[in-house]
Amino acid sequence: MALRLLGISGSLRRQSCNTGLLRAAQKHLPAGVTLELADLMDIPFYNADIEGKPASVSRVLAQMAAADAFVFACPEYNYSIAPALKNILDWASVEPGNALLSDKAAAIMGAAYSRGSSRSQYHLRQVCVFLNLHPLNKPEVFSNVLAGNFDKEGNLTDPKVEQMVADQMQALLSWAERIKP
Ligand SMILES: Cc1cc2nc3c(=O)[nH]c(=O)nc-3n(C[C@H](O)[C@H](O)[C@H](O)COP(=O)(O)O)c2cc1C
User: Fold this and answer.
1) 11-68: per-residue pLDDT in tens?
2) Ligand 1 centroid vs 56 CA: distance in angstroms?
3) Domain spanning 3-179 has what CATH number?
4) What percent of the chain has pLDDT above 70?
5) Is the CB of 115 under 6 A from ligand 1?
6) Which of 58, 157, 172, 175 is buried deepest, with most CB atoms within 10 A?
7) pTM
8) Which residues are bridge partners to 80 per DSSP?
9) What SS3 class is residue 66?
10) Does any ligand 1 atom lie closer than 6 A to the CB of residue 146?
11) Is residue 176 pLDDT above 90, yes or no?
């Protein structure tokens, strides 16, 4: 099956563990399936007063338009979604007909402190309701950055978490195929 996935990490940090989860996911895809990563570094906050679309925003929105499904790596900030991730979803949501997001499948994974970003992931699932995104229910991927699962570059080093990521990618491909219009 040929499928284009877009990975979006809510952390802008160079050594981000959440971005590390996406790199791990890239290693567990069959031939024909690609997982490109979005770069949110230069995306401004959504503001209806901004005239035209900044080039950085157009670049990521074009990636989102081309994607068949999404993989969100969702850090937890103060029990909720990190602003960089919510912000790009806000930009995408105002495109005509919500065409970049509506009816697409998504997988959600995340790395944070002891609860592994579960609270922010459930907030993201709530956002998906309004955006008409279809997040995969299971398997969930919650990873604790304090448990030594990542090296200092943010690469995933824990084989158990890596297996969870691999299993989630496999489930996402089946899910995307099932809900394909
Ligand atoms: C402003 C801020 C708030 C945070 N709040 C939480 C939190 O509520 N729960 C949690 O588990 N981790 C929290 N963290 C930790 C982040 O989730 C952690 O920095 C992140 O998982 C590391 O991800 P990264 O390596 O991808 O940048 C917070 C971090 C920051 C900077």
Assistant:
1) 999 999 999 999 999 999 999 999 999 999 999 999 999 999 999 999 999 999 999 9
2) 25
3) 3.40.50.360
4) 100
5) yes
6) 172
7) 0.98
8) 77
9) helix
10) no
11) yes
